[in-house]
Design brief:
With about 240 residues, the chain is an alpha+beta fold. About 35% of the residues lie in helices and about 15% in strands. The chain folds into 2 domains: about 120 residues, no CATH class; about 100 residues, no CATH class. The strands form 2 sheets. It has a 4-stranded antiparallel beta sheet with strand order 1-8-4-5, covered by helices on one side. Helix 1 crosses helix 4, helix 2 packs across helix 4 and helix 5 crosses helix 6. The two termini are about 30 Å apart. About 35% of the residues are buried.
Length: about 240
């Protein structure tokens, strides 16, 4: 399936969750197509940020902007003068990153928000800051890790690269965004929002390698109606879990 057909499929899955009319083209003159196009990109980035998706996972060496030793001891080396007080190293933030999972080297790892600054090896805390660099004015990562690398979620825009679980999660996120603009139904929006949360919780468990076989299979709709366990599993059948409304 090409990227355009995949996007239409994701949008139609979202619309079906809302019991709204589906679309046949991204450019058709319908309220559903217009609103879906308006909210789609924001929903895609939001869904990407929600989980450490394997299909979008990247691990790269960070580009050094400056280090404190060179800045202090060799001020003529202007390529390494971009530094921030209280940190030894400043690295460029990856341009295609939508969620920074961790910064690390061979000895230490730093987990940014929502995990909080914490150092997971050798017992000491490793702080970091994400801010604009003082000289180049680009988004940067300041830390005390030499030869730092980053593990992050890439801003994947090609729908043909989306895995099945992400397509399902994105359809829930988009349905959550579209519910009030298209239906003005606050009760339905609560059910859709809960379904989106459950879908993301399942994705997070699977991204950490947890076995789904040990969890009961309950649809997001059933869990939302009953106030059920956040850890419930459900089948990704592509059908509308709200059919029983």
């Amino acid at each position: 399936m090409d990227s355009t057909n995949t996007r239409i499929s994701i949008i139609n899955k979202s619309l079906s969750r809302l019991k709204a009319r589906t679309i046949t083209s991204l450019t058709e003159a319908s309220e559903q197509a217009r609103k879906a196009n308006m909210f789609y990109d924001c929903a895609r980035k939001s869904a990407l940020r929600a989980c450490d998706w394997r299909f979008a996972r990247v691990q790269v060496a960070l580009t050094l902007l400056g280090d404190i030793d060179t800045a202090m001891n060799n001020p003529t080396d202007l390529s390494k003068q971009d530094v921030i007080d209280q940190f030894n190293y400043l690295y460029a933030y990856p341009a295609d990153c939508v969620r920074l999972v961790k910064v690390y080297n061979n000895l230490y790892s730093i987990f940014p928000e929502p995990y909080g600054d914490r150092h997971v090896e050798h017992g000491a805390f490793a702080k970091h800051e994400i801010m604009r660099s003082p000289i180049s004015k680009i988004q940067a990562i300041a830390c005390n890790l030499e030869l730092a690398k980053a593990h992050y979620t890439m801003n994947v825009t090609d729908e043909s690269q989306f895995d099945d679980m992400f397509q399902d999660a994105l359809s829930w996120t988009l349905a959550d965004d579209l519910c009030i603009p298209l239906t003005a139904d606050k009760e339905l929006q609560q059910l859709i929002h809960r379904g989106s949360e459950i879908c993301m919780e399942e994705a997070k468990r699977k991204s950490m390698g947890e076995s789904p076989e040990s969890q009961p299979r309950v649809s997001p709709y059933e869990s939302a109606r009953s106030g059920g366990n956040c850890g419930s599993e459900y089948e990704h059948s592509g059908g509308n879990p709200l059919d029983n409304l």
